[in-house]
Amino acid sequence: MATHKAFTQEWLDAWKQKIAGSQEYKEIAKEWEGSVGLICNADPSKSIPNPVYLFTDYWHGDVRDFLVCDEAKVQTAKFIMTGDYARWKQVAKKELDATKALMQGKLKLKGDLTYVVRNVKTINKVIDLLTEVQTVWPDDV
Amino acid sequence: MQNGYAGKFLQVDLTGGVCSSFTIQEERLKKFIGGSSLAASLYLERFNLDADPLSAENPLMLMNGPLVGSGFPGSSRFAMAAKSPQTGIWGEAACGGNFGPELKRAGYDGIVITGKSPHPVILSITNNSAEISSAAYCWGKDIYETTDILKAPDKNIKVLAIGPAGENRVIFSAIANDKAHFIGRTGLGAVMGSKNLKAITARGNQAPGKANEEKYKEIFKAAIAEIKNSAFAESLHLMGSDAAMDLGMMTGDVPIKNWTVGEDFELSAKLSGPTLTETYLTKAHACSNCPVACKRVVAVKDGPFRTEEGPGPEYETCCTFGTMIMNSDLAAVIKANELCNRYGMDTISAGATIAVVMELYEKGIISLEAADHLDLAWGNMEAVMALLGKIARREGFGDILARGSVSAATHFGAGALDSVAHVKGLDLPMHDPRGFHGMGLAYMMSNRGACHLQHAAMGMEQGMVSWPQLFEMKEDYDGKTSQGKAQLVFDSENYGILGNSLSLCHYLLYCLKPETVRDAFNAITGFDFGFKDLLACGARDWTLKRGINNLLGITVKDDVLPKKILTVLTEGAAEGSVPDMKLLRDEYYAIRGLTTEGVVSKEKLLELGLPELKEKLYP
Fold first, then answer.
1. Does A106 touch chain B (CB under 8 A)?
2. How many whole angstroms separate alpha carbon B353 and alpha carbon B366?
3. What is the ipTM of this complex?
4. How many domains does chain A have?
5. What's the whole-number mean pLDDT along residues B152-162?
6. For A117, which residue in chain B has the nearest alpha carbon?
7. Which of B198, B405, B409, B515 has the fewest Cβ atoms surrounding its Cβ within 10 A?
8. Which of B564, B579, B553, B262 is nearest to B409 (CA)?
9. Residue A38's domain is classified under what CATH number?
């Protein structure tokens, strides 16, 4: 299976493909509307010299744009989740549940929390599918 | 009032109609801090543990902690305690609201009520004095009516009242502060009713002082910033405690159909916090000095369950009158909540008891005739509303249920007890230990019977908190593992109990850094406690109450989970998982210093500075 370097466009494309190919996701996410921006804070010690901005867009069980982008683009997302590299890596590897990370303040959410809580199953499925992407992490290289 | 404490406690003898006051030395306050911990130390020292819970001899105690009245976020809570009529062991409950701060403004850290009035009375406390007067004009009235009557002369009067259920000694009856905040668990409303005490009112104007005002101001600012930064606090503000429903269904936390079904997302979606917010919420409501405002105010404008604007249901109630009895109508949950509020009944035990009889009805153990011709089919909310009234008034079939789920099931026989999920006689709260084994152990070992608030196991095991500065914690716990959970529960008890002795809301305990809690406590009291001291107080509290329960007959035979929880679910996140009761208990006993019989060891009693308890346990 192909491996992809985390936070690259190829990695995002592989993730998008996993989501688009999941019938279970389509069913769970049929009510979800809107984009999610992901921000990974810079951490030079982990080979993340600058913040990483990712834009992911979901619409009623379908996936739309999945882009490595700039700060301006990420700020247009309906929801924005921000965290340190180590946290994102834990979440992507399912070592840390995203909802727990939010509650503990390890990830920050900007956006309608009520909507997120209502759709927590969708969020967990998206992350489950990310774990299926063979990922090379910058600090593991 | 310079150090968080008012400096005196009110003593009320209802038999003689006499009110007086007493003081407690600082050394004792340093050992037990306040709240239910202080109540337990007084109970052991002064009272006959063998007294019947509904007799004049059983004291009813109300205790503040030092944070109460300080204005610190979440510090409005107070505890009440007595030997429980529901369990026959140590009983306690705590609630927020505004009575605790007002009592302190009136000059008292707590109240110890003994005896029994020959006729219904009200205890009125105003600025360092108290008087007992007739309650003839409100006896028989429900809690909302009683509260309105007692606040009529001055809306700033704070009220604690029982309803018809407490008057009639329903063993899971509750005590309400200003209609919206409940001393719900362990049946303390019945203890109040047994004393012919309809209500307590408080009014005061003395501002409690702090040992270090300047330091406190800094800590207060830090606390507010932490709360503003907390997604947990935000979720509580937006959706109340019922924010837990959606996530709980996903993780296997939510009980369904009297603990027999593992998953039902359609049901949870209709009963969840977001749904409540979008449909019936009229506004959020806060306890005194709380910026979170998790309480719900709701109204159902039309339909069969029309409800005037008033206090709304918590997560637990959305389960007991929702998922547990297969009701998906949130309006009906709101109505059932209002009826329990008015009658004065714990919504957990009331709903859990009804879930049990619905199961027994389905199994044919209870007939339509035995149920006073109420069709107890799952989700029949008309029958539920009728049944709540019959329980509160102790009419017919309702009288059997008013004795509680264990007694009712025993009455019906034929294996009916297997339908009851309880520990030590207290119905389980609405968190399924099959999804979270640590919670199972916490239920087993909680000193008031199955409880989710005598510890912080839920916050730790479900990952709502991270407190590496207090003790070793994993980044993420597997709920469906028993191994190693004893340490988690032990730690979570020692810190979580502090919520009840400091009088700090558990939600705020979850939102705030432990450093902020410690520093606020020290700035207010002038003490110099480190984490180790605070955790020792938590351990002492747990051990003291366990020792009291040992004296009341509690041993290893009582530290068990019910058959419901030892039965596997065949679907959902907790599928196939049951707590390993023996492993959990054995590991826990070793850490907690209990003998194999479940009795606190002599060594542990001496280590924690409880020599009086040692004398009684090992005469």
1. yes
2. 13
3. 0.81
4. 1
5. 97
6. B246
7. B515
8. B564
9. 3.30.1050.10
Residue A114 domain flag: yes
Is A16 a domain residue? Answer: yes
Query: What's the alpha-carbon Rg for chain A, to the nearest Å?
Result: 14
Report d(CA A11, CA B124) in Å as an integer. 69
Residue B459, min C-alpha distance to chain A (Å): 10
Inter-chain residue contact A120 with B250, CB threshold 8 Å: yes
Using alpha carbons, select from A82, A76, A114, A42 the residue that is nearest to residue B236: A114
Residues of chain B contacting A96 with CB distance shorter than 8 Å: 475-476
For B257-308, write each residue's pLDDT tens digit.
Answer: 999 999 999 999 999 999 999 999 999 999 999 999 999 999 999 999 999 9
Domains located in chain B, CATH noted:
9-203 (3.60.9.10), 240-420 (1.10.569.10), 433-617 (1.10.599.10)
Angle (CA) A104 A106 A107, round 5°: 110
In a domain, A136, yes or no: no
Is the Cβ of B214 closer than 8 Å to some Cβ of chain A? no
Question: Which residues fall within 8 angstroms of residue B190, CB to CB, at 6 or more apart?
Answer: B53, B54, B85, B86, B165, B166, B169, B170, B171, B172, B173
Q: What pLDDT does residue B208 have?
A: 84
- How far apart are alpha carbons B286 and B97 in whole angstroms? 8
CA of B68, closest CA in chain A: separation in Å?
26
Residue A54 lies in a domain: yes
Q: What one-character DSSP code corresponds to residue A129?
A: H
pLDDT, tens digit, 9 for 90 and up, residues B414-444: 899 999 999 999 999 999 999 999 999 999 9
| Tens-digit pLDDT profile for residues B234-243 | 999 999 999 9
State the Cα–Cα distance between residues B58 and B195, nearest whole angstrom. 9
- Give per-residue burial for B153-181: e unless 16+ CB within 10 Å, then b: eeeebbbbbbbbbbbbbbbbbbbbbbbbb
Which chain B residue's Cα is nearest to A110?
B231
Q: What is the mean pLDDT of residues B316-336?
A: 98
How far is B189 from B165, CA to CA, in rounded Å?
8
